[in-house]
Amino acid sequence: MNAIPRSLLPDSAEAHDGRLFVGGVDTIELAAEYGTPLFVYDEEQIRSRCREAVSAFGDGVAYAAKAFLTTAMARLVSEEGMHLDVATSGELFVALNAGVPAERIVHHGNNKTVPELAMTLEAGTGRIVVDSFDEIDRIEGLVADGAAPPKVLVRVTPGIEAHTHEYLQTGIADSKFGFGLATGDAAAAVVRIRESEAMGLVGIHAHIGSQVYDVESFRKAVETLAGFVNPLDLPELSIGGGLGVAYVTGEEAPSITEWAESVHEAAADAGVTARVLAEPGRAIVAGAAVTLYTVGTVKEIPGLRTYVSVDGGMSDNPRPSLYGSGYEAFLPRSVDAERPNHVRIVGSHCESGDIIVADAAVPDDLTVGDVLATPVTGAYGHSMGSNYNMFRRPAVVFVRNGTAHLVVRRETHEDLIRRDA
Ligand SMILES: Cc1ncc(COP(=O)(O)O)c(C=O)c1O
């Protein structure tokens, strides 16, 4: 029995006559109507994860926009009561343009430019997470020029090794992010900000890494941070995002509720009086989406391998080529089919590393023209996508209660030359 596990499919997934329906909508019909590649999001699942986050952490918990951001997503998150974490002026623009109230935005970034800081100060962003002494200088300069002093958190690198990919570790001392605890920079930043009239210190922030399965890593981070934050008597402690999700058969990840429970327990044990907040991205959206592709070619190399090429690739999901991330694949026309064959699913880019699933179990009747799906593609696919090889970026649909809403249209060839001078 190696059909695609239902636990990897969106919550609303159902099979009707063997075909995958998400949000009450036939995915094969979606592929026909909107074309492929296509991101299909179970809207109710995103909403329910947002509600779970709000109930687990309370008001102030933020969705990390970098995982997946569109105007519709910014609105949805806001409607469900989450704040929004942005990491660039572009994400800030999308959020503000979507109508997210500025006071519910948290602004991150290790190299916020003067224009970016000016934009966020002018908008009245609720929290700026200060990342460097240079940034403190810049905020002071802008406030001296008339901007209103912001509320800030200090981003700290606590020296915690989260068990994840090297490029996904952000809390270790050797990091481009934040102020080191061990070096004394974090303490120096607190002193400087407290002496400054250009900003008000409301908390400490740390993000130990991404795709972290082990709540122990978060417990350790809270324990380490407690020693720093408790004597400061600050109202907020954000432990960032980073909760992992299951991508392939056999993986298991804690729920947002379990994550919050263990973090709160660690905080209580360590005598933390600050409110503990978080900013999950992946855990809110990853599992809500499947990507639909069309199989274009099947190349068998006897005794070696079979390559199945689809009409997307590293431009809609760069994670396998960036981090060697694993995914599964299945055929939405027969969602519960056994998958006895092993193939490599590759994209259409001019790169041998353009791999979507390095070793995919697939049904033995997979054929050219099939719609093929990869589940758990809701985070860091669309948002990290590119126009490499002048690919037109895919459309995104939200499905719910039997209805599909196009939230991002597919790019056209004309879009590809729109910025050319
Ligand atoms: C500061 C910060 N917060 C939140 C997140 C979201 O992480 P995730 O999507 O893994 O929850 C990230 C991811 O890189 C981050 O850098």
Strand and helix layout:
Blueprint (H helix, E strand, L loop, with lengths): L13 E3 L2 E4 L2 E2 H8 L3 E5 H15 L4 E3 L6 H9 L3 E4 L2 H9 L7 E3 L6 H10 L3 E4 L2 H12 L6 E7 L21 E2 L4 H11 L4 E6 L9 H15 L6 E3 L17 H14 L5 E3 L4 H4 L3 E13 L3 E6 L8 H5 L17 E6 L8 E8 L8 E5 L19 E6 L2 E6 L4 H5 L4
Parallel strand pairs: 4-19, 5-6, 6-7, 7-8, 8-9, 9-10, 9-11, 11-12, 12-13, 15-16
Antiparallel strand pairs: 1-2, 2-3, 4-14, 14-15, 14-18, 16-17, 19-20
Helix pairs in contact: 2-9, 8-9
Bound molecules: pyridoxal-5'-phosphate (PLP).
Arithmetic mean pLDDT: 96
What share of the residues lie within helices? Answer: 25-40%
Tally of alpha and pi helices: 12
Could you tell me the CATH topology label of the largest domain. Answer: TIM Barrel
CATH architecture of the largest domain: Alpha-Beta Barrel
Number of domains: 2
The level-1 CATH class of the largest domain: Alpha Beta
Biggest pleated-sheet summary: 9 strands, parallel
Strand content: 15-25%
Point out poorly predicted stretches: none
Find the count of extended strands (DSSP E, 2+ residues).
20
Distance from N terminus to C terminus (CA atoms, Å) equals: 56 Å
Structural class: alpha/beta
Shape: globular
The rounded Rg comes to: 22 Å
Determine the CATH superfamily of the largest domain: Alanine racemase
Small molecules bound:
pyridoxal-5'-phosphate
